[in-house]
Design a protein that fits this description.
By secondary structure, the protein is α+β, with helices and mostly antiparallel strands. It is built from ten helices and four strands. The chain has a four-stranded mixed sheet, covered by helices on one side. A hairpin with a 2-residue loop joins β3 and β4. The termini are far apart.
């Protein structure tokens, strides 16, 4: 049976981009189904009736929701270019840091963006980002995955592109290079990968989003 692969999403979502990047790394051909979140398609509501949101990955008619779950599914089905480490402990660590990014880092950063750089909100975001900075220092490697991109790197896609876009759009400094040199170096390396470039929207798209949504009149 031929692999039929579809990805329901919106171009500007960092969570959808996670899946695009994973598919690019694996060299998997897929059909992108653009969704309008103000008028959700019948297929989206059918495939993800619980959360009713993107991304939704459909493989041979079987839908999978939630970006981190999708990434693990892709890694299990398509073995080439591993996204998760083979070692059980390292695999658990990768899952842990991916969860830290989703549960602590992204909400804290978004709070700082929405507050237009309010001092306490930025301090809280920096506290969470320091964990990632320290992890990169300990690893001493190009990526969280070592020499190659892994689950943690893909999970941090929002930090790589969207944080800089918010800084540009709103005149904020959320990720100063002198405070987070390892994260900034990681961002440069990550965004320079072709599979990542091909999975991301043009920078002006998130810049425009932040300006229109949070820019001061």
């Amino acid at each position: 049976m031929a692999n039929e692969v579809k990805l329901h999403g919106v171009t500007g979502s960092p969570f959808v981009c996670r899946v695009k990047i994973a598919l690019n790394l694996k060299g998997i051909k897929y059909e992108f189904v653009a969704e309008d979140l103000s008028n959700k398609s019948a297929d989206l509501l059918k495939y993800n009736p619980v959360y009713k949101k993107v991304p939704v990955f459909v493989h041979n008619g079987n839908p999978i929701s939630e970006s981190l779950v999708i990434l693990e599914y892709i890694d299990e089905v398509w073995k080439g270019v591993p996204i998760l480490p083979q070692d059980a402990y390292e695999k658990a660590q990768a899952r842990f840091w991916a969860k830290v990014i989703d549960d602590k880092c992204i909400p804290a950063i978004f709070k700082a963006i929405v507050s237009h750089g309010e001092k306490q909100a930025v301090a809280e975001a920096h506290e969470t980002l320091q964990f990632l900075e320290n992890e990169l220092k300990v690893k001493g490697s190009k990526f969280f995955g070592g020499d190659n991109i892994n689950l943690v790197d893909i999970s941090a896609t929002f930090i790589a592109l969207w944080v800089g876009a918010a800084e540009e759009a709103l005149g904020l400094e959320l990720l100063p290079r002198d405070k987070f040199p390892k994260i900034k170096e990681w961002c440069d390396n990550y965004l320079n990968c072709q599979a990542v470039k091909d999975g991301l929207p043009p920078r002006e798209l998130p810049v425009g989003f932040f300006k229109s949504r949070f820019g001061k009149a």
